[in-house]
Specification:
By secondary structure, this protein is α/β, with parallel strands linked by helices. The protein is 50% helix and 13% strand. It has eleven helices and five strands; from the N terminus they run βαβαβαβαβααααααα. A five-stranded parallel beta sheet has the order 2-1-3-4-5, sandwiched between helices. The longest helix is centred in the middle third of the chain and has 14 residues. The protein starts with 9 loop residues before the first strand and ends with a helix.
Length: 220
């Protein structure tokens, strides 16, 4: 997986009730090139996390109006488009285990350690794959989708990200290309697969690649 572009600021949302933790974490991430937005309660978190274009989310497990585990479940963290990192006090191993089971991509302990925080977030951004991510197999694409055999290996990679809901910016980060280049690849794919727009592309591809093979139906 490609290293994110260092000249492109990434957007991160922090949800934490403790003002001191919120401020120190915001300052640290800003220093390392992130665009940081923050909220201090669960209700605001649920609104912000669904409305903003993000690259990562950090959520405190101890919010004033909601338990962090409930927030992870509410947004379906394991299948969220970007990694969601849980945060809590040191030594709470049972909570760490529960957070990971609820889909957390990583865990930050308070008081925060700068090196550990940055390493955790960078690793999560670079390696995140939603649990229900659709994987497209080139041979099936070529066999079933009109124009699927015309795609280059790079176009196939871009298509897989598109099918999984990634923006041009997120595709660029994942594949180590610029958002503009990702946009050009998307346009070529639309043309080759004769799709009117991205929604039509997703419908066409998923309808065909997820259709059972005739021999599988016969076996049933």
């Amino acid at each position: 997986m490609a290293t994110p572009h260092l000249d492109t600021k990434r957007n991160i949302l922090i949800a934490a009730a403790d003002a001191a933790v919120l401020n120190s974490l915001s300052a640290l991430l800003t220093l390392h090139g992130f665009n940081v937005s923050s909220v201090a309660d669960g209700a605001s978190f649920l609104t912000a996390v669904r409305a903003r274009c993000l690259d990562c989310v950090v959520v405190d497990m101890c919010m004033p109006d909601a338990h962090g585990l409930d927030l992870l479940k509410e947004i379906d963290a394991g299948n969220f488009p970007v990694p969601v990192i849980a945060m809590s006090g040191r030594g709470n191993t049972p909570l760490v285990v529960k957070a990971v089971k609820c889909g957390a991509a990583g865990y930050i302990e308070i008081p925060i350690q700068a090196g550990e925080v940055i390493a955790c977030i960078e690793e999560a951004i670079q390696s995140w794959t939603p649990r229900n991510r659709v994987t497209l197999i080139p041979d099936i694409m070529a066999d079933r989708v009109d124009g699927g055999g015309l795609l280059t290996p790079r176009e196939h990679q871009v298509l897989e990200d598109v099918i999984n809901g990634a923006s041009n910016k997120q595709i660029g980060r994942h594949l180590g290309i610029s958002p503009r280049t990702a946009e050009l690849y998307r346009a070529r794919i639309l043309s080759k697969l004769k799709a009117r727009n991205t929604a039509d592309l997703i419908r066409k591809v998923l309808t065909e690649v997820q259709r059972p093979y005739p021999e599988a139906l016969a076996a049933d």
